[in-house]
Structures are given as C-alpha cells and as structure tokens.
Amino acid sequence: MSEGSEHLLGQPEVFMETMDEPRYKKPSKFQQVLIYSLFALSAVYMMICLLTLNQRPPQDTYAKTATNIEIVETVPDILVQNEYKRLHRETYLAWLDVINRAESEICIAAYYSTMFCVNTPTNICKDYAAQVVLALQARSDAGVKIRLLIDGNGFGDFTDIDTYKQMFLNFEVAYMNTSALFGGVQHSKIIISDKKRFYVGSANLDWRALTEVKEIGVFIEGETEGAEMQQVFEQYWACGTPERNGVITLKQAEKKFKKIYNKFNYYNPLHINDSLFYIAQSPPKQLAQTRTHDLQSIISQIINAKTSINIQSMDYSPLMIYTKPQMYWDNIESELRAASIRGVKVKIMIQENTYNPQLYKSLTAMKNIELYFMKMDTLNEENGWDHTRLTHSKFISVDGNSCVITTSNWTGDYFTNTQGTSIVLEHSALCQELDQVMNRDIGSTFVKKYL
C-alpha cells in the first residue's frame, strides 16, 4: 500500500474521533439574554419598518366621531344667467362656516392673497371676500389665533398681509420659499379651524375665486379628519419663515416635517361608515412619513377604473411646462390611454387656449377619450378686472364611486416640484355629484368638444 493510501485510510479514524467530541455548548446566561434581546430588537425594528411602509393596525383606521363631507363650488353669475345651475353650496359660505365656528385657532395655507376687490366703471364687486375678511377679524377679536402660510414669491404684491397685521389681533404669518426648496410654488389652498373642520379645493385666497372663477372644493367636518389635515398644515408651517425673504434649506425643513406622522394613506385609508378617506400630497421631497404622493392616488384611480373617468382641470398637458426646455411627461396620459384600451370612457374638460390644441390630437385619436374646452366671457384691464372668469376646478371621478379633489393642475410640474394637497375619497354619493358637475358643464353652451 502506498504512502498516500495509508494517509487516506487513516483519515476516517481521525474524523470519528472528532465526531465523538461535544459539538454543541449551551450558551451562558449572558449569551441567552443577548440572543433574546436581539430577537426583541429585531421584532421592534420590523414593526417600525412596517409602519414606515404605510402599514397601520386596523383599529386606527376608523373615524371616532361623526363626519360631514360636502362638495362646494364657485359658479360665476355669467354662467347662472345662461341657465347653468349651481349644484352645491358656494365656496365663500363654506369658508365662513370654517371661520365662524372657530374657538381657538384658524390655519390657512395659500398661494397668495388678493381679498380686497376694487370696483371698476364696468364691474361692481360682490362682498363675499369682504365677508370672509370681516369674519376673520371678528374671530381674532374674540381671541382666536390666525396663522397664514403663504408662498414668499406668490402672485400679488403682499399688501393684503400688511392689512391683516393691522386688522387681526392674534395673527402670525409664515412665508414659504417653495422655489428654493422644491423648484415650484406653494399651491395648496386650505382653511382649517380647531382641528375639526376644513376646506380644501381649487379656490385661491382671492376675491375672484369666490365670485368670478369656476372652482370646486370639499368641506369636511370631523375630528379624525381634521386632526389629519392639521398635520398637513403643520408640515407646511415647518417649511416657512417669519420673513418673506427668509431662507430655509430642505435639510432644515426635513428635520421638522419628517417627524410628523400621518395615520391615513393609500394603504390604510380612514373608514367613514361605508366610505374611505385619506389625504395625498406633492411634491415627493416633502412627503412626511406614510403620506401618499397625490400622483400615486390619481394613477391608482385610473388603473382601477372599469367604466368611466371624468376629469376637470384648468391645465392638462403631458409636459413639464415650467422647465426650460420643456420636457415630455406622460405618467398620467399613458394610464389614460391604457384605460381607453380597456374600454373605459374618459372625459376631460380644461380651460380653452391654455396650450396649443395640436398637443391633444394623438390623445383624442384614442377610442373612448373625449376632450372638452370651456370658455367664459373674459375680462381684461381695459374694460374690467384682469385674470378672471376661467375654469379652475381640479378633480377626477372614477366609476361614480371613487374620486380625488385636488389643488394641483394636471401637468408634470405640479406633481414633481409644486406643493399641493388632495382629498381622496371612496364615496359613491359625493363622487356621483362630481359626475353631475361634469355632465352639467360639458352640456353647457360655454363648453365645446375638441375634434
């Protein structure tokens, strides 16, 4: 037998001797405690991860008090004079409802403020905006605190803010440099009082939004929903500064708003009787923990559509329109095309003359997609007020069952770098009311179909 063979034959004996030795040694008490601690920490970590990934225990997703949800709108008189009916309570009345019932605090998020209408030789102001301002003054005199969050580069000359400082006893303003933080503007329109009742919709803090511009919004009263909306406002407030030219970095803002936890979202909506509710926001960089991006909320509606989709927006375009140069952005349009292929009837209504009509040719060439333009008689500086009488509503209703009422126009910029807020509902009665609005509008003499 060779030397190598002897070595190989001897190897099993060595192996057997090794196997006879103890292979497992019981951990010490210290090691056991350490192992159990690691298991416990792992369980806690996994729970945190689940929460961060938008998962919440079911018992947290039911409204604890009664809820009132109501569609509100602004319909200019020019429409009503032509047999065009108002279907809902007017916007200014909903604002007054929020304001007049405040006992401790009123919070407002706005793009800009132009609430003081001036008469012209051809047009006389309604007093709706004046009623709102006087209501705010009365609540301030009664000890109610008023906080206003506004874009530091917003439309207007900011003279309203100086007037508010003189009129309101308990007034605080914060300016948000949204262009520096995200590259867009603060476009949300929110009025909330006492964490119990609020308005969200298309109407700016502008007298025109209460009389001359076609607007859609939602009034909600409920403690659970109000507390959730207050979290949205506090997140915005964290991004503001006391001075108009103040600058806060995104990193500084994140330290504040990333700590804000939101209970309800796409994965875990709030249950209100037989309905569902949650709030969505833009832009992605500003989303607090568990908040759903409003682009996701809209696309999920389109993907789940089975029979019908009704959309209204001032703007609609498959572009990033404020970038230089403009960029193609088809996140929404590609899903609308897919829906039309599935047989879903899609109707879109926008303001006329917003963009080159040639942009929509390929979209309306799709079967089941119809596009409508709305145009009211417009005014200009020579014969009346400027920047008035247009359709400014922003919503989507799907299958008469689910809908989104938003503050964002439907171009890429509003979902990528502009601050917006959306109310997402699965609520048949309310969503069917939006369908009624759509049918009323496209059936009027002020709307024409794009061919």
From TrEMBL:
The keyword Transmembrane applies. The keyword Membrane applies. InterPro entries: Diverse_PLD-related, PLD-like_dom, PLipase_D/transphosphatidylase. SUPFAM superfamilies: Phospholipase D/nuclease. Residues 182-209, 387-414 form the PLD phosphodiesterase domain. Keywords: Membrane, Transmembrane, Transmembrane helix. Gene3D superfamilies: Endonuclease Chain A. The chain crosses the membrane at residues 33-53. SMART domains: PLDc (SM00155). One of its GO terms (molecular function) is catalytic activity. It comes from the Eukaryota. This is Phospholipase D3-like. It comes from Hexamita inflata.
